[in-house]
């Protein structure tokens, strides 16, 4: 994986702007610790930071393609093309000559062969830019599911772009200004395709390209989920899912660096680990290495609840023993979770006050420990969105809710009387009235529903479950993919997500809900497809989300930090608070309630400080 950035200006000579491009590129050092490069032309500058995964010596970037001694194409590329070997063979048969063994060069030649239609040939996760010096045009490309991020900022005479907002904000002409809509996007727990929060900035939508010419910018969608009638019976469907998974995991095991899996002991990560173990064994490699997160005192402090009925540890160990993985638990301490430099590192990785508080810090620390032993990790992320694993898929009230179903469940979770705090409880009433978060969520929900492809003849329930699946695959999954990308790339770890392979996503999206839940449980298809590689305990385990520390010291550390913020009259986040409510909460709120709201307050204050954000509400 890598970090990319660039600048196109049709009215300026950028060949002397090395310092600006170098500064933008330097912000991506965490994404690419192995090498750096800048390529300058008259009207373009491209920057690259490399994490070497395939062809360690030959894959340096920005990379060029030449013809008759002239540069005909330049790319700065981030990601992996999992079918690059097949594409390379096809392109060689068509007369293309290669000087490296990298997938980056395959992307260059695929574009030279097929033009913008080359996206139809790619299987992978990627975000990259292609500059054609002959026509002086830039093409930005993002993968179908939006696994890899890509942001851009239109200018009067071109564009700025980067893997993360920080690359664009490093340019002297870009300012960190956030208006009411941007702050509503931050606080609403929605993910609006294309929205980047900062005024003037956009995120390239998944499955889209952006063409930059002198005449202007043109965005084009090259892939989206489509609705088709599903004609396979249940045994065929289960077999097809397994065939796809076997192929996907085998492709994603290709790397020239140490590789591992993330193993929680849940169904999703266990399936990936088991299939990876099989794939490596078949290739004469292995054993697969696996890692799980745990917390000091978790067993002693654990209290089952509606979301997490069981600890992860015993199930992760059972799967590791079953497949013979070389397993290690990464045990985190509360002191590490609360250390400010770790929290600041997470905020810097995100560039925005988004996330799950301690859940993001623990993920960052987990990846930091894994990176000491591996460069690539396979994850079970996105199986819940693809196969219908969350509680709210199976809650009739959440399904019937006229809004994002996860928001219904989250709101219910924050119920229980006036003493319970929701994430916005400590914010000023005037601010909340101005942002109108319920209205903002509703508008985004209506837009999302309008995007759902329909299928004639479906029952009302099947139609609604298609809607819910689409909401998750185009909105909710983006929240989690962003989280995993930033936390992993902050330490130079490449995380691959096999369940986001577009072939699997498209196939399962069109599988009727009655078939997805044929045994009356969550993720019926996935469990059936991989049942033979799992121990009984893991196969029958009920869905449990990413773990959270239950050490009471964590909430008390938050309380102390919030007390400091309230005492600091210069704290920028203080102006956003309902001071009376915040003071009362810090004094009396139970630890769990304080975590719900306190994490949001501290994150907002840290963001306003770190990025010198101008709020224009």
Write a brief caption for the model.
L-glutamine binds at residue 103. This protein is α/β, with parallel strands linked by helices. 43% of the residues lie in helices and 17% in strands.
Radius of gyration: 24 Å
Helices, by number, come to: 25
- Spans of 5+ residues with little confidence (pLDDT < 50)? 415-419
Q: CATH homologous superfamily of the largest domain - what is it?
A: HUPs
Strand content: 15-25%
Helix content: 40-55%
General form: globular
Query: What is the second-level CATH architecture of the largest domain?
Result: 3-Layer(aba) Sandwich
Q: Strand sequence of the main sheet, in spatial order?
A: 2-3-1-9-8-11
Any idea of the CATH class of the largest domain?
Answer: Alpha Beta
Structural class: alpha/beta
The end-to-end span amounts to: 37 Å
| CATH fold name of the largest domain | Rossmann fold
Largest sheet: 6 strands, antiparallel
Question: What does this protein look like?
Answer:
Strand 14 (259-262), helix 7 and strand 15 (289-295) form a beta-alpha-beta unit. The protein is an alpha/beta fold and 617 residues long. Strands 2-3-1-9-8-11 form a six-stranded antiparallel sheet. The protein has a six-stranded antiparallel sheet with strand order 4-5-6-7-12-13. A five-stranded parallel sheet has the order 16-15-14-17-18, with helices on both faces. It folds into two domains: 3-221, Glutamine Phosphoribosylpyrophosphate, subunit 1, domain 1 (4-Layer Sandwich), CATH 3.60.20; 234-540, 3-Layer(aba) Sandwich (Rossmann fold). Mean pLDDT is 94; it is low at 415-419. The protein is 43% helix and 17% strand. The active site is at 2 (for gatase activity). L-glutamine binds at residue 103. It catalyses: L-aspartate + L-glutamine + ATP + H2O = L-asparagine + L-glutamate + AMP + diphosphate + H(+).
